[in-house]
């Protein structure tokens, strides 16, 4: 008898990716608050039960979506092409990281904000820790003087979704203005 477990795992992974892609499109179109399990199922062309079996709840879906998005960004800055990935000047990589993070907030800001509002994930979550290490490492490579951990935390603060969404939605600041100001901040902090 043939073992179908490999094919089943491939199907499960494919379904998971399909559902996460559908959820990401819905978040981009309608915002995270308007995304329902029914809407994700309809967009993905599967039954609602499939979404619940895969993620358990809407909260589980949102956390999986954020993990998926964070993983893509991490892959880009750890292994992707310069300037975001290895091979570029550390300050240029830092600037590229901030711009990539802001682009992510522009698309998935409501999901990110929901995680920021979760006390256990806001500052201690794995994605935040990886970002902190990345920024601190780049500042060290650039020869930045001072308390690199505190400086890295300070550089990440202006990239938080809650602040960026307030700047964009309430203060009507273009995302490019925010990105340019963040680059200016990076260059000032890393100046020797």
UniProtKB/TrEMBL annotation:
InterPro entries: Homeodomain-like_sf, HTH-type_TetR-like_transc_reg, HTH_TetR. Residues 36-55 bind DNA. Transmembrane segments: none annotated. This is TetR/AcrR family transcriptional regulator. Pfam families: TetR_N (PF00440). It comes from Rhodococcus gannanensis. The keyword Metal-binding does not apply. Keywords: DNA-binding. Residues 13-73 form the HTH tetR-type domain. SUPFAM superfamilies: Homeodomain-like.
